[in-house]
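Handout, section 4.2: multi-component inputs.
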Amino acid sequence: MLPARGLLRFSGFIWLRQYVNGCLEAWHKFWFEPADPLMLGIIRLLGGWMLFYNLAVWTLDLEAFFGDNGLQPLQAVKALYVNRPIFSFWLWTGDQYLWPMHIACLVISGLFCLGFATRITSILSFLITISYSQRVPIANFGFDQILGMLCLYLSIGPSGAAVSVDSLIRRWWMRRKGLVDAPRKFASARVAMRLIQLHLCTIYFWAGLAKLKGPSWWTGEAMWRVIANQEYQTTDLTWMAWVPWLPFLLAHVTIAWEIFFSVLIWNPRLRPLMLLMGVAMHVGIGAFLGMWTFGLIMAFAYLAFSDPDLGRHRIIVLSQWIRGRVDSSAVPAFESVSENSERGVDNSTDSAMPAMISEKAGLLQNTTALAATNSLATTSTATVSEVCVVAVVASERSTLRRYFRDHQVPCRIVPDLNSGLDVVSRYRISAVIINTTQLVPASVVDFAADVADLTSLPILVLSIASQQSQFEGLGAVRRVEVLDLPASLRDIRVKLQSMCDAADSSSHRVC
Amino acid sequence: MRDVWCPDMLKLLKKCGYPFVSLMLGFHVFAVFISPAAMPPASPLLMDGYRLALPYNELLFLNHGYHFFAPDPGSSTLISYSVPRPGDAPVVGRFPNLTIHPRLLYHRYFMLAENLWAFDDETQAEIQKAYARHFSALHESSLITLNRISHEPSSILRIQAGGKLDDPETFEVETIGAFDFSTEASQQSSVAQSF
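Output:
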């Protein structure tokens, strides 16, 4: 009896420990899993622009609002804040510093928008935002609250790590030193994005519940009262009086959307719908109630819900499309190489790779064709095995793609490691080639380890000889070989062939 | 020397930092959540939680209710003024008015008229005086009269019956007071007199 009870206790303890560990792991993943700072950078660019615009508008009537004896006298505002931990540098400066301080704030917010010295300017921008808002509490509205919220989180996360002057300077500096720069991920970016997401959920949840305190939101009349408010409206919507069900419906949908936003937004399938409704609502607020600043700043915050990796991918495609060089390789894991994929590829892109991979020794086709054939022979499915190639530089992808295309070898060529991992996990791939140009060595090591965990594929890493020391970590990863660049396609073929042979002999998986 | 203790220090910081950052994040989310939750009517429990997070929220400008157009969208408030001119018609004006551009500045003035009534009486009186001083100075006068105008949105029935949003019946005017800034001493008496 006693041992059985002890066993129960023991199993209960194990279950509890597993449960707690699971919770801790989920917590860590939710808050601290490194994230691409791209979306944070875009939010900074747009939010910084709103901050700059806000300050520029204050310029038009600065003395009236911020003067010691203006519309909100300094003494009266100070009296409001007695014994309260309010920060505003305007509370400690007099009229004599009004314009110099304001111009300095405009410059700082402009630099913040552009992403220059962002670690400093983001913090200063947050302090500027709350200083202006706290100085004129009577003139505040929702826009100021959201701008303050965004600036706070942008100062916490690495908002200058992407879409910024800082990132351009960093890239230039690394190129000058002969190093390569690649997209990095930050735990702090995840924290900032999560904070924005949760804050938005809180805002909508309470905005919805607060509306339920009023009878007019139940009767549906509230939306009409907003529409018919002449001081807000910029477009005459009184025609809705003849379709009264429309404002009533809008009122009910608004409440339902606001209350359930905080739950449904976490469902990946419903997220686009929720965000689309939100954007429609805020654009409506901008267009019909004249509050463009509020509507836009809310919509900008929605970017925190978008997938940065997907966003980066789309930006690459968009930028290439704008430059008239649509490159199908920038659409990883969605389509294989086709005859049309080369159309419009600009080979004039500055890259060392075409010079490094010499097409004259075009023997790789034997390897890859053999790989495909072997794979067909050994797998029960009809899926053709493919080679996954990761290459950041477009011209390098173009070189490899042309080579594979000319020799009827199916392949999936992707511009970054995440897409490569996606391809490896979703498709039957026979081998992986990584060109390390413009990739962070640590990321390459992590990627190789991830692929090795998922599969037993041979991985061929192409790197410049001088940088080989940075790939020491690859030694611990199974079935990885490093090939020095410059290398000919023959070198790559021979290496890949030997690796495939080794893989074939050690397991039944072939390439 | 630095190389020797730095890794240990980093380890220690990492050990202490992670729980600290986690706790801070938990508290921050609590603070953001509790601030609008404690808008009246609220239970004593919510109020206690609100008071706990209040200094933090005020410091970071997070003390907001997010009650947009809630609980009920009411009438909007405007402030009108009249500046007497000897031997001529008085100068009249009001804010917000649609001549204020850009729209963001218009909204700032709108909020000046709209939000004032949420503050205590003493602050209201002081701010009203500031408004009066500002607009009288704008028109180079020492005398000014302020009015509060409530503009009730027209109902669906009124519009269906041919009414307009700016029908005179939808406006309700209430005098705030007459202000005289000719002497500092007379300001006080004028304010007192105005009520």
